[in-house]
């Protein structure tokens, strides 16, 4: 199994998360390196 990864460095609302989920992206982590900054880390299987 191979994976591809996506990092988004901004806040996302529920609609944006739903769109990414519909594209096969799975949210695996959220980090906050600073005040009011969120980094979302996603993965999905290559070829899906």
Strand and helix map with partners:
Layout lengths: L2 E6 L5 H9 L3 E9 L2 E9 L3
Antiparallel strand pairs: 1-3, 2-3
Structure description:
The protein is an alpha+beta fold and about 50 residues long. The chain has a 3-stranded antiparallel sheet with strand order 1-3-2, with helices on one face. The chain has one helix at about 15-20, and strands spanning about 5-10, 25-35, 35-45. It has one domain (about 5-45).
Number of helices: 1
Q: What characterizes the major β-sheet?
A: 3 strands, antiparallel
The span between the termini is 11 Å
Instruction: Report the portion of residues in β strands.
Output: over 45%
What is the overall pLDDT average? 93
Helix fraction, binned, reads 10-25%
In short:
This is DUF4177 domain-containing protein. With 48 residues, this protein is an alpha+beta fold.
Keywords:
48 residues, 3 strands, single chain, 50% strand, three-stranded antiparallel sheet, alpha+beta, 19% helix, flat, DUF4177 domain-containing protein
